[in-house]
Amino acid sequence: MKDDRLDLLEKLTEKKKEFEQALKRLTDKQKDYQEDLETDSAMDESDQAQREISVSSNYSLIERKSQELKNIDRLIRQVDADAHFGMCEECGKRIPPERLLIIPEATLCVACQRELEKVDSLRRMSRQTSLRLRMHSAEDTGNENELPALDEEIIDSGLEMIPFTDLEEPPDPAFLKEE
């Protein structure tokens, strides 16, 4: 893990240098644009508007690169200070350095992140379904807080709930046997 941390620090340092160079180019370009706007009074309105748009776009790029540079600095400090940096908070496995370079704030490995996103997706779908039921109920009864009576033939209250984490695993054969 120590070699991985050193490799990551080296890659982050290289990336930091690239960002600093890009930021310098952008700020130099911004100064040039600003000087052109101040000195060229013979410009027609459309040329001036185009330059102002370019200045604004360039300024947005400077802000974004500055933020990315701050993130890389923060990440370098974290890697230096935290021996557990780069470990998945959920499963404890190592997060690949490539993932950390792309998403420096990643605290989960890809597998755990996917699982989290699946659970979030199921929750969103559940909320949307609940909202649709309430809207449908409001149309039928005039009360949006009252859920419609569901058909008892569809819902069997004798069934046990299956946790989200078990949805992708095959069911336990003991669970399926008739009691």
Identify the notable features of this structure and list them briefly.
single chain, 179 residues, mainly alpha, Four Helix Bundle (Hemerythrin (Met), subunit A), 2 domains, 5 helices, flat
Structure description:
This protein has 2 domains: 2-108, Four Helix Bundle (Hemerythrin (Met), subunit A) (Up-down Bundle); 109-144. α1 (2-39) packs antiparallel against α2 (45-81). It starts with a helix and ends with a helix. The chain is flat and about 65 Å long. It is mostly helical. The model is unreliable at 150-169 (pLDDT under 50). It contains 5 helices and no strands. It has helices at 2-39, 45-81, 97-102, 110-141, 173-176.
Helical proportion? 55-70%
- By CATH, the architecture of the largest domain is named Up-down Bundle
Strand content: under 5%
Class derived from helix and strand content: mainly alpha
Average pLDDT level = 75
Molecular shape: flat
